[in-house]
């Protein structure tokens, strides 16, 4: 009876002859809920070159952010950003715009929370500040101005 229990439990605990690490790796690989790895990496803040973001300086600071209307519009505006050399590194892809988000920098003088994005230009990453509450629809939604 004891030998029968050992045989019945042996393969399940040994992972079919593989080590526990490989067995755990197999479980991770079969996880259907895991998100796909993101190909875009947000540039490191230490490598950000200071410069004006647009002709009129919009997007260059929390007090002069690009105005957008919600998250989707924010991602689109950042994805359409053109570097000083005219290139568009995120190619207009809103998903790449979303992945460029580094976080928020808190509220500016209007009381709106401002998001920081880092766009990878050839001359160095550019910090772009966006106010996603910068339209009447978003302000009404949150009881603002």
Give a verbal description of the structure:
The chain contains 5 helices and 4 strands, in the order H-H-E-H-H-E-E-E-H. With 145 residues, it is an alpha+beta fold. The chain has a domain at 60-141. A 4-stranded mixed beta sheet has the order 1-4-3-2. A hairpin with a 2-residue loop joins strand 3 (113-121) and strand 4. The longest helix is centred in the first third of the chain and has 13 residues, at 2-14. It is globular.
Could you give a quick summary of the protein structure above?
The chain is an alpha+beta fold and 145 residues long. It is 30% helix and 18% strand. The chain starts with a helix and ends with a helix.
Q: Summarize model confidence as the mean pLDDT.
A: 74
Beta-strand percent range? 15-25%
- Multimeric status of the protein: single chain
- Give a count of the beta strands, DSSP E runs of length 2 or more: 4
The total count of helices amounts to: 5
The low-confidence runs, each spanning 5 or more residues with pLDDT under 50, are: 12-28, 45-52
Strand order across the biggest sheet?
A: 1-4-3-2
How far do the termini sit from each other? 78 Å
Shape: globular
* H and E order: HHEHHEEEH
Helix content: 25-40%
């Amino acid at each position: 009876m004891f030998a029968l229990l050992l045989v019945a439990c042996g393969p399940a605990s040994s992972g079919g002859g593989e080590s526990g690490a490989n067995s755990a790796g197999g479980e991770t690989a079969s996880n259907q809920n895991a998100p796909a790895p993101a190909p875009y990496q947000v540039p490191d803040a230490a490598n950000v070159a200071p410069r004006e973001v647009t002709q009129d300086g919009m997007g260059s600071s929390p007090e002069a952010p690009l105005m957008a209307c919600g998250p989707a519009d924010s991602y689109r505006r950042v994805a359409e950003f053109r570097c000083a050399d005219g290139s568009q590194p995120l190619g207009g892809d809103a998903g790449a715009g979303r992945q460029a988000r580094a976080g928020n920098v808190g509220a500016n003088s209007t009381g709106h929370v401002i998001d920081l994005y880092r766009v990878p230009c050839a001359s160095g990453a550019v910090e772009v500040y966006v106010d996603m509450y910068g339209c009447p629809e978003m302000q009404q939604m949150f009881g603002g101005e």
